[in-house]
UniProtKB/TrEMBL annotation:
Signal peptide (residue range): none
Species the sequence originates in: Salinibacter ruber (strain DSM 13855 / M31)
Protein family (similarity comment): Belongs to the tRNA nucleotidyltransferase/poly(A) polymerase family.
Keywords annotated in UniProt: ATP-binding, Magnesium, Metal-binding, Nucleotide-binding, Nucleotidyltransferase, RNA repair, RNA-binding, Transferase, tRNA processing
Name of this chain's protein: tRNA nucleotidyltransferase/poly(A) polymerase family protein
SMART domains for the chain: HDc
Amino acid sequence: MPAKSPAPAERTGGPCRPYTPRNWCSRRPDGMTEAPSYTDIDTLADRLRDVPYESILRTIGRVAERKGIEAYAVGGMVRDVLLGRSTTDLDFVTVGPETGIALAEAVGEALGGRTAHVYPKFGTAAIRIPAADALPDDHPDDALVLEFVAARKESYRSDSRKPEVEAGTLEDDQYRRDFTVNAMAIHLTPDRFGALLDPFDGRRDLERQTIDTPLDPADTFEDDPLRMIRAARFATQLEFRVSDRVFDAMGTQAHRVEILSQERITEELHKMLEADTPSIGFKILEASGVLAHVMPEIQRLKGVDVVNGRDHKDNFYHTLEVLDNVAERTSDRPGAETRWLRWAALLHDIAKPKTKRFDPEDGWTFHGHEDVGARMIPDLFRKWRLPTDERLDYVQKLVRLHLRPIALADEKVTDSAVRRLLYEAGDDIDDLMTLVRSDVTSNNPDRRRRYQRAFDRVEEKMRAVEEKDRLRNFEPPVDGYEIMETLGIEEGVAVGIAKTWIREAILDGEIPNEHDAAYDHLMAIKDEALRRGALFEAMQDRLDGPENRALGAIKEVVFEDPDLPDDREAALDYLNAVKEEALADGPSTDEADP
């Protein structure tokens, strides 16, 4: 195992507080340099000399002038130049129908015959320039993307976020943009290169570190409710606040997000999660009432119950602190690279509302929330249009295992318990340890240090067991093919039983993780594995229609129950009783309550 990640620096000012427009939670340390003043800026020509794509901007300006096309750089690029942030997505607006596509094709030729990918339905075109041709050698992105579109104005119907579009002026195009910091433009023609056009005073909002809208925010969100989630996302990425009027409008328009496609919502959530301090956006969404419409399962984590003077921590704010801790512990990696670890942090306690109980002696408990939470993950991924592949498996695994390492800190823990965690976590053990370390959010610094020292001991045990037993990505040294060949059988339950028992013997330390020892163990257990496999097949033949629901329970007994009788008829009677009990119980709670 690699060395553990360093602990994050101590926060200043205590844990993050609930969001209000005037009390927003940022992790910027005290003494951070203030944002630069933009009061006297009317041109960005000097600043543009420092960006790697200045020569491309000047080429676009020259081509536009030659073609007689009025062209501007707009939006995020202008904002990021003012903030000194890197960007690789450059947006350009032209004035006149179809001029965006015409300029893109002419620029492609001027840049050495690069292809302009045209999207006639949307009136846009894009040019992709590989990083090697446009960006510094150490730049993390793989390409510079230039997108061209003709200026337009938009109007919306109340029941749709799809606008009716028609050609417009530059002012029309700026007028329709979401936020003032994204509504700035610069001239590209050679004689006015870099001149700033800022009709909504976006510079001021950059200086004030505030997200605001060019128009009345209530109208902005009525037209396009996705902008409420984008407001939270930009506030998160830039570590800005949202203005009072934007926050208020989000509260009155929160229900409008229900007309949005889940795919668009999830795209914004990904970007929030990948920011340096993801909690900012989730707090804005929760405080404004939007989160309850977008992710009610996360909203339900919020709140504290009190019985007999005993309460529990607010699991919503705890979850966000864990999420921020994960972001900080993985700050040396791009946010997109740790996206699914961050989803695991967001969901690690998702089942606490379902499992919350009050015990007069123990107080509030959440027993089994890790297992219930893991079973919730597939439905949540489907609901939120997240991938249902190995990424789902990864998140589900981390949620299920996130309490296991703390149990291993006990000095009396056996090697077999460590082996099992290494086997179950596999290559994701380091991410799991990042999550469990991040899960320590106590306000008591001594308690935090105790937990972190305990996890140090756990990782030492893991390293020792891993070095001795080689369990990373463990596969039994005798595989299914060798079992079938040795026993002269085809694939079936008997093979599964033999593989499972060999694996358990290795994990329990009964035999070493070596082929010869595993083969000898196979020969010792083969008769019982064959007997139990035959019993399962006999029971399977007896089941009909709905009775097949009992197969899982029968299989579990055949694999694990030490009390299965030796006599065949007695064993079949035993399994028949298992079947009757399983059928009497009906569908499991999880199956009945998706």
